[in-house]
């Protein structure tokens, strides 16, 4: 699958990340199919995507998106609880809960449903991408890649594209260019078995361990550590007040 041939993007899992991923692709002009496992989960994602704090309607109110563009983007998104709804997608980006066995199981099932040639991408926060795609067919492995977004996806520009040893150049190129087409600043990262986290979360993790050590040894209070990072490095949040935007409270 080449970047130019991508027309329809599947989101496997709505939720905080999947909803944001769906939104940015719809705004960029792609048809989007969101698959979640329950009607309640779909209703929550639909609400966040259209009416939520970072949703399409707020983007219009904040002058980030024209009214007509917003209406067109909303019309490009469909929702389903049926995995088969993803059958004709050109790329499926997975954002289901961070459980390795669950991701492996769902990708295996997806492999038998989605057309050959479609790219599979995982938004895992840190599992080795090769491990996440362990159970897909050999023919899908060159099409398997990591695409790690930051929360909230509509506003945070970062995207890590993670390539395994088996990811083809076409797949890596398509993931990078798709990221750029949605306005992301893309960092390319090599998949590294035996570690958790790619670039962003490994560096954040190292800084967090140091911050904990400083707090635990009584060298500075948690409040003063946060204060120093926010005012001295312009971080929007630090370690202890808010762990970097995980969840909806960001
Ligand atoms: N929240 C963050 O800040 C953040 C940032 C980067 C990456 N991530 C990663 O993104 C992934 C999703 O995280 P989240 O915070 O959006 O979780 P979330 O709980 O908000 O969303 C997960 C969604 O997946 C759905 N789901 C569960 N099983 C499914 C299945 N088999 N098929 C389809 N949908 C299914 C759930 O119903 C839910 O709507 C995780 O791997 C997480 O580590 C999260």
Secondary structure layout plus pairing:
Layout: E1 8-12, H1 15-27, E2 31-35, H2 39-51, H3 56-61, H4 67-75, E3 77-80, E4 91-94, H5 100-113, E5 119-122, H6 129-132, E6 144-149, E7 158-163, H7 169-181, E8 185-190, H8 200-216, H9 222-232
Parallel strand pairs: 1-2, 1-4, 2-3, 4-5, 5-6, 7-8
Antiparallel strand pairs: 6-7
The protein binds nicotinamide-adenine-dinucleotide.
Nicotinamide-adenine-dinucleotide binds next to helix 1.
Give a brief outline of the structure:
The protein is α/β, with parallel strands linked by helices and 250 residues long.
CATH class descriptor name of the largest domain: Alpha Beta
CATH superfamily descriptor of the largest domain: NAD(P)-binding Rossmann-like Domain
Which ligands, by name, code or SMILES, are bound? nicotinamide-adenine-dinucleotide
Structurally, how many domains make up the residues?
Answer: 2
What form results from the Cα inertia axes?
globular
Overview of the molecule:
The structure is a single chain. This protein has about 250 residues and is α/β, with parallel strands linked by helices. It folds into two domains: about 190 residues, NAD(P)-binding Rossmann-like Domain (Rossmann fold, 3-Layer(aba) Sandwich), CATH 3.40.50.720; about 50 residues. The chain contains nine helices and eight strands. An eight-stranded mixed sheet has the order 3-2-1-4-5-6-7-8. Strand 7, helix 7 and strand 8 form a beta-alpha-beta unit. Helix 1 crosses helix 2. The longest helix is centred in the last third of the chain and has 17 residues. The radius of gyration is 19 Å and the shape is globular. The mean pLDDT is about 95.
